[in-house]
């Protein structure tokens, strides 16, 4: 009988289309699926209760799937190198296989483990490894459109190339495991786990993909795929998502929506690659000249933004939904983020950390990339002068006010003409609908046009200071 192999479960909480698991099963009679509860991650201020709850739920689902196949999930708590060293000594495991993770912390962790143990990294949490998608000169891409062309030019996975879930994953009964942590008492907008991920993907392809190109910008997320949390933890693989989209695109009715969704999935992979090649980006702008932007120090305004009390309904609805559900549609994220950076002139890193703490799909690569995009300090051809008008964004992407009325009930009786700018209501109408601005709902923290000019001036000063002097 061959020595067992440890399958180190990290961000691949699934059995189907799992190259690391498949590699372990191909080489050993017994596979030891092990999840290491790393206190450095679970106790991080960047990890909120909802994301932890989604993770624990996904682990429970994975354990159930393994038990149905004669196995189980081994759970151990501690520093990963120490945990894996002990587990290998206990079991005589020949090797450790895992899917790579590309965050700066994960890469440093894996280097430490690989220096001491036989760690083999197999597969990737993306369709194409970030080291494989490069310019003709061999440099990493820093602009999305040429990246997307190169990414699409590479061979795409086909449905037949995705392995099904294994029938058996045997685990010796003698290997001890800790109980899985109890999920925090937090409400989740999605059911965690591989089966739930497949149901969500199938429902989106069936019911939402054909209209995705037109509906994806709705603030309420009604046009969104809502699979990003599953991709974040690998309950759904990137290959499965792209494969489903490409298969659907063969039908004319789905083609436009499928192409738009594939492009959005490619944005995720673009940001994975950017962080892979530029690991300093969580703390510094891609364009160094914007390090000189003089951000304001306004803790009361930061708190108002975090709590959804800015006086701008589209922003407040988004921020309240974020705290309640841990999920936002992409357009809602952009509107809320732009308000923090451009209207309040507060440091984008404060917003990035707040989002990453609360989001179920909070991921360093996508979150940092999107925040730098909104701030105009990242890898983008249209830099700092992009400023979202929260009133116009609300009117365009929540025209009937359904989203705002759900999350900002103070405005429930405000007529549609005033809903996204309620301070414009005459005082008589405010009294009639029971929403006095400044009492029942906040007055705007700032005047958007004045704040926009202030932000542009701050960025222009930073650019001028960075220019070489002759």
Rounded radius of gyration (Å)? 24 Å
Major sheet size, sense and barrel closure: 5 strands, parallel
Query: Which architecture of the largest domain per CATH?
Result: Orthogonal Bundle
Shape annotation? globular
Strand percentage lies at under 5%
Query: Share of helix among residues?
Result: 40-55%
Number of domains: 3
Give the total of beta strands.
Answer: 5
Quickly name the level 1 CATH class of the largest domain.
Mainly Alpha
Q: Span between N and C termini?
A: 74 Å
Uncertain residue ranges? none
SS element count, helices: 20
CATH superfamily of the largest domain: DNA Cyclobutane Dipyrimidine Photolyase, subunit A, domain 3
Query: How confident overall, as mean pLDDT?
Result: 94
Structure at a glance:
With 470 residues, this protein is mostly helical. The protein has 20 helices and 5 strands.
Overview of the molecule:
There is one protein chain. With 470 residues, the chain is mostly helical. The protein has three domains: 5-123, HUPs (Rossmann fold, 3-Layer(aba) Sandwich), CATH 3.40.50; 194-277, Serine Threonine Protein Phosphatase 5, Tetratricopeptide repeat (Alpha Horseshoe); 288-464, Orthogonal Bundle (DNA Cyclobutane Dipyrimidine Photolyase, subunit A, domain 3). It has 20 helices and five strands. It has a five-stranded parallel β-sheet with strand order 3-2-1-4-5, with helices on both faces. Helix 5 (104-116) links the parallel strand 4 (95-98) and strand 5. Helix 10 packs antiparallel against helix 11, helix 13 (313-325) packs across helix 14 (330-343) and helix 15 (348-358) runs antiparallel to helix 16 (364-375). The mean pLDDT is 94.
């Amino acid at each position: 009988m061959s020595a067992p192999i440890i399958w180190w479960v990290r961000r691949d909480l699934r059995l189907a289309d799992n190259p690391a698991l498949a590699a372990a099963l191909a080489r050993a009679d017994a596979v030891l699926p092990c999840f290491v509860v790393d206190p450095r991650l679970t106790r991080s201020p960047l990890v909120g209760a909802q994301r932890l709850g989604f993770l624990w739920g996904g682990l429970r689902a994975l354990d159930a799937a393994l038990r149905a196949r004669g196995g189980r999930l081994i759970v151990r708590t501690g520093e990963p190198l120490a945990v894996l060293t002990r587990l290998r000594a206990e079991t005589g495991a020949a090797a450790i296989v895992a899917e790579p993770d590309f965050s700066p912390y994960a890469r440093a962790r894996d280097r430490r483990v690989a220096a001491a143990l036989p760690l083999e990294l197999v597969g990737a949490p993306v369709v194409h490894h970030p080291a494989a998608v490069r310019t003709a000169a061999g440099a990493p891409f820093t602009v999305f459109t040429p990246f997307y062309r190169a990414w699409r030019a590479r061979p795409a996975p086909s449905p037949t190339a995705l392995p099904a879930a294994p029938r058996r994953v045997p685990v010796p009964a003698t290997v001890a495991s800790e109980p899985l942590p109890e999920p925090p008492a937090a409400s989740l907008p999605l059911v965690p786990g591989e089966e739930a991920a497949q149901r969500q993907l199938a429902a989106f392809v069936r019911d939402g993909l054909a209209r995705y190109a037109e509906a994806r910008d709705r603030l309420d997320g009604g046009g969104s795929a809502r699979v990003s949390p599953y991709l974040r933890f690998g309950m759904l693989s990137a290959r499965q998502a792209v494969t489903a989209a490409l298969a659907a695109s063969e039908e004319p009715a789905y083609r436009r929506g499928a192409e738009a969704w594939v492009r959005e999935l490619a944005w995720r992979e673009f940001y994975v690659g950017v962080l892979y090649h530029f690991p300093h980006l969580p703390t510094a702008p891609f364009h160094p000249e914007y390090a000189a932007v003089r951000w304001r120090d306004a803790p009361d305004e930061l708190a108002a933004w975090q709590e959804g009390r800015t006086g701008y309904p589209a922003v407040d609805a988004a921020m309240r939904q974020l705290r309640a559900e841990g999920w936002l549609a992409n357009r809602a994220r952009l509107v809320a983020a732009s308000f923090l950076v451009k209207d309040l002139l507060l440091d984008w890193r404060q917003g990035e950390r707040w989002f990453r703490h609360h989001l179920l799909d909070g991921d360093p690569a996508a979150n940092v990339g999107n925040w730098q995009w909104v701030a105009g300090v990242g890898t983008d051809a249209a830099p700092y002068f992009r400023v979202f008008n929260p009133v116009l964004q609300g009117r365009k992407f929540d025209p009937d006010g359904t989203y705002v009325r759900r999350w900002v009930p103070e405005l429930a009786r405000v007529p549609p003409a005033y809903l996204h700018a309620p301070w414009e209501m005459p005082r008589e109408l405010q009294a009639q609908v029971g929403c006095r601005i400044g009492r029942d709902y906040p007055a705007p923290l700032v005047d958007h046009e004045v704040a926009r000019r202030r932000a542009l001036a701050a960025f222009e000063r930073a650019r001028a200071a960075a220019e070489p002097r002759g």
